[in-house]
Amino acid sequence: MILRTTNFLKKHHLVISILLISSILRWILILRGGQFYFPDESRYGIAQNALVLLLDGKVKTALLVLVNELAHVGFKITALIPALFENIFDTTLALPAIFFSFFSILNLYLIWMIALKAGATTRVANYALLIAACSQVLLYYSRHLFPYDQAMFFSLLALYVALINTKPGVSFLCGTLSFLCIVTYNGYWAIAAFPMMVNTFNGAKEKYWFVKRPTFLGLGFLTPLAILLIFCFVIGKDFFSDYGVYLQKIVQGSFSEGWSLPFEYFWHAEHGFIVVVALLTLVSLFLFLKKRNKFLYIAIGGTIFVYLCLVIPSNVTHTFVVYARTTRQLLPFLVLTAAYGLDNLYSWKPGGRWLVNVAIVVILLQAAWNYRLAYKIVYFREFVQEVQEQYPNFKISSKMMRFYAPLVCENHGLLAKNFHYIYTWPQSLPPAQGDILMAAPHPLNFLPHQYDGFTREERQAIRKEYFEMVLYKPDASYLANIKNEIENCYQANNKEE
Q: Could you read off the pLDDT of 350-394 as tens digits, one per residue?
């Protein structure tokens, strides 16, 4: 056993090194803060509340809290684990983020494993891992308490399982993992469906394969769904009605941007990195037209399938709006396609090896630049800590810093502006008047954040405004004019949620 482990470490030292560096980068990012910036992170708060009830012996009430809104219920159940660790080791927002970051790291490893299982060489798999590790889109969400990486983990694991063989047990497991993906984050239904398609059509076609495989995939998917339905029935929860209400809420943003938002978002999130990936993808497409193989069927097929699943419900049926978080489903397949294209540059004469080295250097340099932008963001909680170091009397509600805060609030004669997640503008209050004591760029100035629920017109307004978090010593006359509109920073939203 020890000898086998040693041989693995020697053979795959590059893989281990990339995963280790990726882990450290994510943990440093997490320790810089940012948790509870997005309103959707409140789902982790639901798990925290449910855990308190469970520890008090109020099991039924705790379960009702978890399923009060069925959307992404798998994430809330999993979140009980880090919530328990928080309870044992004292509260720290970094701890749950580090827990969920392991799914992000495992996704990188699964991309490598999928490449090998789909028939790629070790070098192609290593390139895929390196490119994935350099993607900012696969990095910056890890500092927040989101279900996206966990859901992607289940989908990628389902894809890996789908490529193993077509035995009934494997098909059943693939279906189950696909369900876990959707129940963890409902918006990832495209990458949940693709592994089941792969398992259906992959490999030799045994007798009645077109009946057997879908049957066992369906059983694998429907069995946990049936358990969830029975549970909802027992506690009196209307599963279908609840999901119907949830689906009607997915309208923030613009349906018309479904086809174009992925391109625009990837450019602003990845810059030159996505250009190199796109060029390498074109190389793979050219090779695919000349000589088709299983690997490219998976990589290119996955890219096309997910893109169509974004565009059709958005532009055609007007059912789902495309967001940054749903667009990132494309990345694992683009990474695989780009890795194949990069490896095939070696055969270009003359200068193939030179092209490969240039592409790798550009990817690494662009990743360093992109990561620098993510690490520079200052979020509310961290800015308030800096403020309170200089102005200890200034108090602000921790719940207010999470979500739904007023535009402007006052405490101990100091005025705080934009210490909240911004939904609408222009702001209704007149510009604050007084001496600026401290200021920092608002997190919304980070361009990738502007592609989660905002229209093109709203993004243009954000960039024109350039929001800042500002602490003022306000003029007395200004306070008098707006005294009915402002709230106390400490009292605002300090009630139970």
A: 888 999 999 999 999 999 999 999 999 999 889 999 999 999 988
- In angstroms, the CA 57 to CA 488 distance is 36
**Among 325, 355, 373, where does a domain finish?**
373
pTM over 0.90: yes
Domain C-terminal end among 373, 402, 425: 373
Residue 37 lies in a domain: no
Which residue from 356, 361, 358, 363 is spatially nearest to 341, judged by alpha carbons?
356
- Per DSSP, the three-state class of 379 is coil
In this structure, are strands 468-474 and 434-441 parallel, antiparallel, or unpaired? Answer: antiparallel
- 409 and 367, same structural domain? no
Q: Are 440 and 468 in contact (CB under 8 A)?
A: yes
**Cβ(129)–Cβ(15) below 8 Å:** yes
Phi and psi, residue 28, nearest 5°: -65, -45
Rounded to 5 degrees, φ, ψ at 245 are -65, -40
Edge-first strand order for the sheet with 487-488 is 434-441, 468-474, 414-417, 408-411, 487-488
Interatomic CA distance for residues 211 and 197, integer angstroms: 13
What is the spatial distance between Cα 14 and Cα 130, in angstroms, rounded to a whole number? Answer: 9
In whole angstroms, how far apart are CA 2 and each of 5, 10, 109, 163? 5, 12, 22, 29
pLDDT in tens, 199-242: 999 877 778 788 889 999 999 999 999 999 888 888 877 777 77
- The DSSP letter of residue 139 is T
Query: Where on the phi/psi map is residue 434: left (φ > 0), alpha (ψ -120 to 50), or beta?
Result: left
Q: Six-digit token pair at 152?
A: 């992607």
The H or E element spanning position 15 is: helix 13-31
